[in-house]
UniProtKB/TrEMBL annotation:
Keywords: ATP-binding, Flavoprotein, FMN, Nucleotide-binding, Transferase. GO terms for biological process: FMN biosynthetic process; riboflavin biosynthetic process. The keyword Transferase applies. InterPro entries: Riboflavin_kinase, Riboflavin_kinase_bac/euk, Riboflavin_kinase_dom_sf. GO terms for molecular function: ATP binding; riboflavin kinase activity. SMART domains: Flavokinase. Residues 3-136 form the Riboflavin kinase domain. GO terms for cellular component: mitochondrion. This is riboflavin kinase. Pfam families: Flavokinase. Signal peptide: none annotated. Its EC number is 2.7.1.26. Pathway: Cofactor biosynthesis; FMN biosynthesis; FMN from riboflavin (ATP route): step 1/1.
Amino acid sequence: MANSPFPYFTSGTIVHGFGRGSKELGCPTANFDETTVEKLPSSIHQGVYYGWAKLLKKGDNEIYKMVTSVGTNPFYNGEKKTMETHILHQFPEDFYDETLKIVLIGEIRKMTTFENANELAAAIQNDISTASNKLDSDECGQYLKHSFFQQ
């Protein structure tokens, strides 16, 4: 794992996405700005990752479990690479234009396409379950106290 890109720490501004995550798939996502996506190292391939997220918003000092999708979203015939984070927490409101800090700790699966939206939604729910279980480990928990999230 000497060439592993993990952990990968980044932060960026939340922008409007395609509006599919919450509406079509029941999985709201925070979409990172293009500059943040462009800074991803080439060693982070198109796929689904797990890690921690912190929203830099007044009154919210929590660090949440998260799943992040990096890629072109082949199910939707996407051409542009995006980075979308689903935070395992229900927020009362959207947080566009806010800053989100994340650490990617590991990969769940490679990006792939699906036969239909139901298949995709089921895979997303499995990704969320996998991430939640992995993040319960002591190894993953150590990042909760990392200086990246204290700044």
